[in-house]
Design a protein that fits this description.
The complex is a heterodimer of chains A (206) and B (181). Chain A is of the alpha+beta class. Chain A has five helices and nine strands. In chain B, strand 2, helix 4 and strand 3 form a beta-alpha-beta unit. The chains are: A alpha+beta (206), B alpha/beta (181). Strand 9 of chain A pairs parallel with strand 5 of chain B, so a sheet runs across the interface.
Chain lengths: 206, 181
Amino acid sequence: MKKVIKLLPLVLLVIAVSAFTVDKIVDNQGYKIGDVADDFSLKNIDGKMVSLKDYKDAKGFILTFTCNTCPFAVQYEDRIIELDKKYASKGYPVIAIMPNNTNKKPGDNFEAMKERAKSKGFTFPYLIDSEQTVFPKYGATKTPHMFVLQKTKKGPVVKYIGAIDDNYKDADAVTTKYIEAAVDALLAGKEIEQKETKAIGCSIKV
Amino acid sequence: MKLNTLLIVLLIFISCKQKSQKQENSLVKEGKALVVAHEDFETDLKVYDYEGLEPLLNKKDGKVYVVNFWATWCVPCVKELPYFEALNKAYADKNVEVLLVSLDFPHQYDSKLKPFIKDKGIKSKVVALDDADMNTWIPKVDSTWSGSIPATIIYKDDDRQFFEQSFTYEELENQVKPFLN
């Protein structure tokens, strides 16, 4: 019996390690344009759970997978705040989700998220995908990675995937604002011209 | 007690080092700038936009090129960097060359990237890609690239493979070997 107890930590370690190995295989086949997205229930930095269905009056969502520690994501923080200020009142609020494994990236842990949101003055929920089950569904591979959803009778439909705009370094040098163009089109009942773009980002840590 | 002695010795060493650096700097003023200029040249960094980088991703000289997109602040990138360095060394005589394409921000070239290259003693060729219009160039690097780093291309003439992932040395070696024939 003693022997078994002695061995227990080793067994647990093996299980833990093998669990992580399995986790490494991330399915990149996430949502495509036109797919209906599943709702989620994720913990916000205020401790409350947030779901898409909570937003009774929203017409859709600007969903961003982002984090504290990726310089590309940090470059976009102010622009994400601006998006929320501009579009939340028009029915397209921003929801930010932090997808990283916080054991790998302690700078993205729940406490750090709270601090970052406070110091930057986030006007939107900053949720943690602690089980890392939501980002694979979307096929998010990096931070920042944006998705625009439109509420329909079928559910929230994916309308845009990709970058925020065409200059990750300098907000003043941007020539095309992809997200704004997409949401403006949806608000006007028009077809989005550029439904998918590629953005540089930090790989999501699993 | 022993630890204290060690600490004192260390402190002396550090202060000596700082002193000698100061001396070097003052020497520069006295006309030995050539040496320093040469040192700067060693960490000289070529910065490209995508158009400038593209020829380096499409050489057709029978050599195997391993091109890694990385940044000094990217933890998994820095973790796998020694494997690329080791590969570059081990396969230099087998016509394999590593190219490290940094995506560090321009304002950190001097403060972060160049010191990193120097401190780590990186022997592989390092260039920087400074091109903000990512939606244009990411698909040109590879149509399947979502845009996350680390990312790696292995190519020889018209054969190429693209990887949006991290590598161990063995994994990297296993992907390079088929290109050697």
